[in-house]
Amino acid sequence: MSKRPTIADVARLAGVHKATASRALNPEADARVSAATARRVRTAAQELGFTPNTAARSLRTNRSSTVGVLIPDLTNPLFPPMARGIEEVLTRRGYTALLANTDNDQAKERTRFEALRGRQVDGFIVATAQREHALLAQAHAQGVPVVLLSRGTDLPMFPLVAADDATGMELAVRHLLELGHRSIAHLAGPQTLSTGAIRTRAFQQAVRAAGVAADRAPVLVSEAYSVRAGEQAARELLDRHPGSTAIVAGNDLIALGALHVLRERGLRCPQDVSLVGYNDMQFADEFQPPLTTVHVPHLELGAEAARLLLEQLERSDGQGAGQGLGRAGAGPAAVAVAKTVLLPVRLVVRDSTAAPQAGSEAG
Amino acid sequence: MSKRPTIADVARLAGVHKATASRALNPEADARVSAATARRVRTAAQELGFTPNTAARSLRTNRSSTVGVLIPDLTNPLFPPMARGIEEVLTRRGYTALLANTDNDQAKERTRFEALRGRQVDGFIVATAQREHALLAQAHAQGVPVVLLSRGTDLPMFPLVAADDATGMELAVRHLLELGHRSIAHLAGPQTLSTGAIRTRAFQQAVRAAGVAADRAPVLVSEAYSVRAGEQAARELLDRHPGSTAIVAGNDLIALGALHVLRERGLRCPQDVSLVGYNDMQFADEFQPPLTTVHVPHLELGAEAARLLLEQLERSDGQGAGQGLGRAGAGPAAVAVAKTVLLPVRLVVRDSTAAPQAGSEAG
DNA sequence: GTGAAAGCGCTAACAT
DNA sequence: ATGTTAGCGCTTTCAC
């Protein structure tokens, strides 16, 4: 366990001063060093296997090249691809992600957030946003750099990278309409989340635009994006609206719950009831039946969020306040509004949707 | 973005010296401080919202309370539960995990390993071990604290936390035998991984013990733990051993590949061929058909690995070399051997296994 | 273009 | 039980 070489060792071997070595090794300052010495220093560093002590650097620069990532639960198949997308762009730029699972628990989230701040993270990528979010409001007031991933807040405090859910939901509903369905129910996700609210609204607009009467397009809200909650909501739906020939779920987990309930009631999917999920999570194509769903590019979502955050960090590097903002409206009175990036989605048709059977399940 | 309070601020507010404040705030040293001042200091810290600058602490103590975690791929459903188990015990003790995906790529693994070392991680949890592993051998030589997770090396260099795969495989084979199968094939995982080798050996022992002839218990090696590789191996298996009435796969992903191939050949599972997976990964119960498999407690595996590493870190805290070793054999000539913890598994019977149909598929 | 010197915030000797 | 001092390894003024 021989001690690791420091920059002083490198400087000595290269025959220069510590400061010069530091400059030569740092891309931003190496213009101030002659090409020859720069090369000598880099060779020396290579030879010794020098890697800078990040703690020392961090202490000096007050930056850590580290980013906190708040996600609900790594065990939910949506998030691993996002995490990988984040990791990929972050590491390429010398940053490291610190992942924290919050389990949608506010107290836990706050604890982890504080702990990460204590570790001098330079910013956060937050995939746990509620439409109203005390912690985020506070973070915003304190000028902490944050990028929102997948879920937004009602106030556009922070840049957001999300899927184009309005379009996605429209695709889903249109698919069902084209198959001939006229009684389409929505098993909505939690309305406290932007994804839940946006998809629900888009569902309602799509059915209304097609001239489907409101009572033929009921919305039942699942209290969580989970199989269990999906089952509960699905039971209620089948009890109260037995005439529905199709269901579009707020996400794939809820759809899975619905699948269970259909099975438990002896209803066949898609013959008796068609079902559309949302997200196209891993293994959605292995379900029984393989799920028709809206594909969301989770990895790209994560990658883009990381890019946005880095951009913001770089910008606010020199000066203090910089919050990575775009401008809405024009003129001097314009309010600062954060940029939103919407990534395109597409419908993936598999076996859980089909034309409604004549007579069957008609309300 | 007012500057964060330092320990000097806390000391001033409490009317003591920095060093005293530091002692009062550090559990290990607070015995050397009077209860009264300790309380005063802690109150002051609370009031200011003081959180120590980890970079400074790290620089001074040469420890980071940070652990590197090497996994193949977060997107493989086995690893998120492990990561959560790790996170849970680590954060409880004030540590943070730095996750890195290696994609089973040696170059990538080395790069990430070095990067993490550069960040002064105190140790590693490695779930990417090959039976022969250059990087790990080297890490061992350098005295880097490492705990192996799930996959071991041939040489017991490091403590290992894994599932009791020998028993698990025996359970799987016995289940098939009890159903009446006498032609059981094994779609093995990569033999360069301890899990692949151990499960294969256990398979062979189990069938041999039951008196099944070797040619009635063929072993085909899948070149990766993946659906794709599983499909390839399964095709070869069905081509070369069409008489098999049951398959036990090296893991659930391989089993899934086998399922695809059975379907593509018009063979029904379990009526024509029974199939057993391994791991009981998330959603294995949603496959078509729901998969009979060996349940492995992945979260507990991760948690236990974290515990072992912390133990080792605590121990080697003061002195230098401590490698967290047990002793094998007795007497002065005994070789240092690292502890292995095997967690129990259990067979989960679902719908992919059944008694062989009389006559069908008989070789 | 390079060297000298200071200091980030913390903790571990060493006093007292 | 508490204060004093020094220094972890790095970057960044400031000189020259």
Automatic annotation (TrEMBL), chains A, B:
It comes from the Bacteria. Keywords: DNA-binding, Transcription, Transcription regulation. Residues 5-61 form the HTH lacI-type domain. InterPro entries: HTH_LacI, Lambda_DNA-bd_dom_sf, Peripla_BP/Lac1_sug-bd_dom, Peripla_BP_I. PROSITE patterns: HTH_LACI_2. SUPFAM superfamilies: lambda repressor-like DNA-binding domains, Periplasmic binding protein-like I. GO terms for molecular function: DNA binding. Coiled coil: none annotated. This is LacI family DNA-binding transcriptional regulator. It comes from Streptacidiphilus cavernicola.
